[in-house]
Amino acid sequence: MIRSLWERWSSFFKGEGGPWLLPAPRGWALFAGLCAAAGLVSAEEWLRAYAAQSARALARVEDYRKQASQARAEFKSFARLKAQGVGRFKKGLSSLAQSRRSLFEAGIEIQDEKRVLEKVWEIASTYIAIDVPGRQIRLMRGDQALQTFPIAYAPPAAFGQEKAVLANFARVVSKERFAAPERGQYVEANGRLLWQPPQVGSSRRANALGAYVLFTDGPLIVHGPPKSRPDHEAFAHDCLGLSLYAAAKLFAGSYIGTRVVFDPPLAFLKPAPPARSGKRKRR
């Protein structure tokens, strides 16, 4: 193949290409060959430069490919870390919700316990103090007097031929908004149980004590104005002679078990001097 090409090339420069081609001088043929050789050399250099440039571009592309692969691996790692973080966040959010719920429930329980303790403290620290020298009765909470009311009988007056001795300390054992009639009673006699049913309606007990009644474990009964004076004087108890307003406030502010104390104690009180009899002499 190379031989045939060489023969064609030689015949071209010899003028054997056809009748339209004239024989070329040797100088022109030599010049054309040199130009062709120079062109080939230039083409070779250009091809080499282009190949080098292409190699550099290929190297840059390879660097870009490596960087892209590294970035892709980093992105995959970030995506994996993000997925792990989202999973941990979800778990932590669930735990946080449970913790907040537990904290909220614990707070509610603490508030309930606090209200109970405050109520217990209120009941335990509330007491009724009777000041005989000052003719007053006070509803106390700790050392603070919440309300103060006057009393008519100082010391308490005994009615119904009451012979019991007042103690300096008593407790409220029962509260009645309106004094109930005599309650039912039963007596066992000869192996038989005799039952007397409670009364209904008005009775001496109800008429004597009226409304807002505080029964203590002693002879003292704190109550409002009686409905009937004769029934009140015949009912056996010690009385302070309170107004209806004072009895209502003491009834509302006291509890079962509230202490009733004399401040100062009755033993420290001096008996009142006897009243002088007779008229003064005129000078």
Low-confidence sequence ranges: 17-22, 271-283
Overall mean pLDDT = 81
Question: So how many helices?
Answer: 5
Strand content: 15-25%
Shape: rod-shaped
* CATH-scheme architecture of the largest domain: Beta Barrel
Largest sheet: 7 strands, mixed
Class from helix and strand fractions: alpha+beta
**What would you report as the Rg, rounded to the nearest angstrom?**
61 Å
What's the CATH class label of the largest domain? Mainly Beta
* Helical proportion, percent range: 40-55%
First-to-last CA distance: 182 Å
Q: What do we call the CATH topology of the largest domain? A: L,D-transpeptidase catalytic domain-like
DSSP strand tally: 11
Task: Indicate how many domains the architecture comprises.
Answer: 2
Order of helices and strands: HHEEEEEEEHEEHEHE
Query: Which strand order does the major sheet show?
Result: 3-2-1-11-5-8-9
Write the layout of secondary structure elements.
Elements: H1 2-14, H2 26-125, E1 126-131, E2 136-141, E3 144-150, E4 157-159, E5 169-178, E6 185-189, E7 192-196, H3 204-209, E8 211-216, E9 221-222, H4 229-234, E10 237-239, H5 244-253, E11 259-262
Parallel strand pairs: 1-11
Antiparallel strand pairs: 1-2, 2-3, 4-10, 5-8, 5-11, 6-7, 8-9
